Amino acid sequence: MGGGRDVMAAMIKASKSFVMVRIPAGEFLMGSSYGRGEPDEFPQHPVWLDEYYLGRFPVTAAEWAAFLNAYGADVSDFFEPSRETTVTLWEGRYYPRKECADHPANGVTWLGAEAYCRWLTAQTDRPYRLPTEAEWEKAARGRLVHQYYPWGNETPLGRAQFGQVWSSPRTTLCRVDSFPPNGYGIHDMAGNVWEWCSDWYDRNYYHSSPRAHPKGPDEGNLKVLRGGSWGGLDIQIRCGIRVGERPDVSESNVGFRVARPA
């Protein structure tokens, strides 16, 4: 595997988004109350998490391209470049599309997101990983309770990238800092791209999940995605919404952000 600290430094310089935000230890209410969400979001339940860090932004096209170029091996299981991705392949190297360097990386498989975290760990000597589903939701809620969105219950118009009809990567997706942050100072937790979590998906998991540090089922066929995307409706970009997808799937509405322990 190629790469090195010079690659890491170049990646950070290329993109403004490589910033981690501290999420304090404590309890939060996970899921949705009956009548305010989908069946797999019930029951709403308290969850305790220790302190951790989460990326202020999703991994950007600039950061993802730097990883793909440094990896030094076949990346076909990680990413499928297309006319809809913010990263493109040209003459054997990967580049952010014009004016897309600070757009979220998309078309990334769960396998690719995991590989990125391992690579980032090797470059920094810090243990980066995908967030658990509980870590993702606590950060998304930004200290708010019983609210639909990271900013509250107000309409998402002007607060998130959603409800788009495809035109191009530059205009259908948006920069990761296009909208104000939530109460933790984290951006883009609703809309733009769905984000991979580390957990296997189980629609009934909340009925038996542990109260402290839930990490999802031990096995499964689908991995959890959170946050909704550029093509979703307003009800599909809520803090509580959760779906499952195969870990090898590459879609234009899917990306990720990183986490690490405190």
Question: Can you characterise this structure?
Answer:
β5 (87-90) and β6 (93-96) form a beta hairpin. The protein has one domain (5-261): paralog of FGE (formylglycine-generating enzyme), CATH 3.90.1580. It is built from five helices and eleven strands; from the N terminus they run αββββαββαααβββββ. With 262 residues, the protein is an alpha+beta fold. The model has no long low-confidence stretch (mean pLDDT 94).
List the helices and strands and how they pair.
Layout: H1 5-14, E1 20-23, E2 26-30, E3 45-49, E4 52-55, H2 61-71, E5 87-90, E6 93-96, H3 110-124, H4 133-141, H5 169-172, E7 194-200, E8 223-226, E9 242-245, E10 254-255, E11 259-261
Parallel strand pairs: 7-10
Antiparallel strand pairs: 1-4, 2-3, 4-11, 5-6, 7-8, 8-9
Helix pairs in contact: 1-2
Strand content: 15-25%
What's the number of domains?
A: 1
Compute the number of strand runs: 11
Rg over CA atoms, rounded to whole Å, is: 17 Å
Helix content range:
10-25%
Main sheet specs: 4 strands, mixed
Using brief descriptors, characterize the structure shown.
262 residues; alpha+beta; paralog of FGE (formylglycine-generating enzyme); four-stranded mixed β-sheet; three-stranded antiparallel β-sheet; 5 helices; globular
Summarize it.
With 262 residues, the protein is an alpha+beta fold. It contains 5 helices and 11 strands; from the N terminus they run H-E-E-E-E-H-E-E-H-H-H-E-E-E-E-E.
